[in-house]
Amino acid sequence: MTNTSFVDPRLELIAAASHFYQQGWMVGTAGNLSCRIPDGSFWITASGRSKGELQLGDFIRMHPDGRIEREGSANNLKPSAETSIHQTIYSLFPDAIACYHVHSVEANLVSGFTNSDNLSLPPLEMLKGLGVWEENPNCEIPVFTNHLQVPQIAAEIEKRFSKTSPQIPALLIRNHGVTVWGKSTTDARNYTELVEYIFRYMVAYKK
Amino acid sequence: MTNTSFVDPRLELIAAASHFYQQGWMVGTAGNLSCRIPDGSFWITASGRSKGELQLGDFIRMHPDGRIEREGSANNLKPSAETSIHQTIYSLFPDAIACYHVHSVEANLVSGFTNSDNLSLPPLEMLKGLGVWEENPNCEIPVFTNHLQVPQIAAEIEKRFSKTSPQIPALLIRNHGVTVWGKSTTDARNYTELVEYIFRYMVAYKK
Amino acid sequence: MTNTSFVDPRLELIAAASHFYQQGWMVGTAGNLSCRIPDGSFWITASGRSKGELQLGDFIRMHPDGRIEREGSANNLKPSAETSIHQTIYSLFPDAIACYHVHSVEANLVSGFTNSDNLSLPPLEMLKGLGVWEENPNCEIPVFTNHLQVPQIAAEIEKRFSKTSPQIPALLIRNHGVTVWGKSTTDARNYTELVEYIFRYMVAYKK
Amino acid sequence: MTNTSFVDPRLELIAAASHFYQQGWMVGTAGNLSCRIPDGSFWITASGRSKGELQLGDFIRMHPDGRIEREGSANNLKPSAETSIHQTIYSLFPDAIACYHVHSVEANLVSGFTNSDNLSLPPLEMLKGLGVWEENPNCEIPVFTNHLQVPQIAAEIEKRFSKTSPQIPALLIRNHGVTVWGKSTTDARNYTELVEYIFRYMVAYKK
After folding, report:
1. Which domain holds residue D132?
2. Which of C1, C98, C149, D133 could form a disulfide with C185 if both were Cys (CB 3.0 to 4.6 A apart)?
3. Which CATH number covers residue C82?
4. Which residue in A has a C-alpha nearest to residue D147's C-alpha?
5. Domain membership flag for residue A77
6. Is D21 domain-assigned?
7. Looking at this predicted complex, what is its ipTM?
8. What's the pTM value of the predicted model, to 2 decimals?
């Protein structure tokens, strides 16, 4: 899980997707992973592919303005329906190199634990891995409405985060899973694991 | 998980069964998977085989009228006790190429969440993967009584679906798991994962 | 998972133990599996071995009277502390070829669902795999007290089953897991999966 | 899982970490494992490494007084933030050869089941694997406060255990997982599995 410039970053996305699929977080082709490369474009999983068995040909290379780069992109593939969220994240956070969106049962459940725009997280040690180094921290994750038109979700993310940066590099869409971003594919994978751990705790605690 | 005409479709069924077994959805030889081939006959898992380690010789080739095709079918094998349900699905839905029946704990639990003939599903994003592209959809899955004589279940499915097509390609039998069908083995595998995801959510939400 | 006379039956026990370990049913060296061979002796897992990585040298060969057969048995190994239960099962049920004892969290939980000597099981389709072919069956599994001295447990099993045979080839010891037996290692593995499935259902239903 | 002097003990730690990671007990780089070697120094996992894919170069060799042994230690690596707890355990228990610290959701949940300094454990058969050979034992696991400064936690462990030895080789830190120790890496692995089993039981029982 080192992240050198010599490894095709799609291999990192394939490995992460396979692991997340086995956890039940990317079943039935759900979710999408992306990774930004030095020229500013990013690789993103194509629509409708099983995330447990991705291949190099299952990715599309896209420029920040939404233009698809022919070189490398598989033909006949549609970019993920949620590409606009990835574009927004890369635009908002210049340091972000990877952006992962997965759908766990627990993420859906906790998104219903509040009617507010933010969900309070318990003061678990695990928050340190997300960059929160406080004793008994008050930490929240932003929650967004799930619109049928994904660009509307992206616009609301853009609007809110332009004003206020979130405490942790993650956001929830109601009934539609979590999105995290990080400075490397390794960070994005770790953050995904950490938020999902926290959601599991919250669901079990609630019962 | 591509589905070309050059791959023996039994290999797809073997891979899906192994995956479902590992999820705990086909334990103790439970469940049965089938796939229709161009001549109109279909391969179906034989009775009493462990679904985690199927082999090519663990399938029976059956014609729509219930006649067993000798060519390819293993000798000494009994077709699955639930073959009549597969026959009914292929007869009702000419586009169906694969039909998967699995027994998860969650499918059994949710089948008891209603006394009605239909079970309401929550408005999860995951419904899109089952073909429901609406904002906050009202979606139901049909529920059937579990009779000791499986052909009686099949007859009730035939009777109800001849009048009303279900909203999603799936049905529940009380205390007896879910059956899904699709235009390819890939679709059937994805649909199985999606309905099981929704059932997990419903069980966790209920608690 | 075929069970021919040409395969060393310890290989079947090793494969089953590895699978059960991965399910969390044989953690921390818990549980023991045995298999009877044609001369009437049986192979049983030695005490204190991790069940996820058993080897041929981790078994002891024992005669029905408790005498350890030197040939094949590893030196320096103690037979499982629960050997007397296996002896009792083989003595009571002449058809039994394999006897598996595992400790799941769910088996412990359901053993506390009743104070009686028998626990009612829900009328799940899965009971068919355990030999119960009825519509809405009333089925019970016997429950025994957990004594510190295992031979006392074995004596109570012997006493009760000499009078009344159980409805299914399985018994619970309170806070101490389930024991199943069958006419082959394949049957014992399937029965283990089936009773554990039923226990998972019962625990989830109770919540 | 044999523990001979010819095997590099880091290989045991790597195997255990990979297994624990797959159980969800070491996600997002959480947790740390260590093993004492004959000269009194110990190998401990470096900070910030994914526990599912450790390599020999991901360990630091440390002396009891906290001095890092250059030979073998990877450069540029920081010792785990929780090293002081391992030092304290090795200092308190001269027989301890391995010390494992993992973060399960269940360990966090049960640490909140009491406000006291000790948590009562249920009288499960599994306690035998932790050395408690009694009928219906009254067994407790010590619970410590989670301070932001880990050495403060270590000091409180040192203070309490100097006066009273715990009944089982394990301790909980609130919202911060469990730590176990044993006379071998095999024992530490088994103890980890056993305490996690007991926590799973306690969480499910509570619901």
Report:
1. 9-206
2. C98
3. 3.40.225.10
4. A135
5. yes
6. yes
7. 0.91
8. 0.93
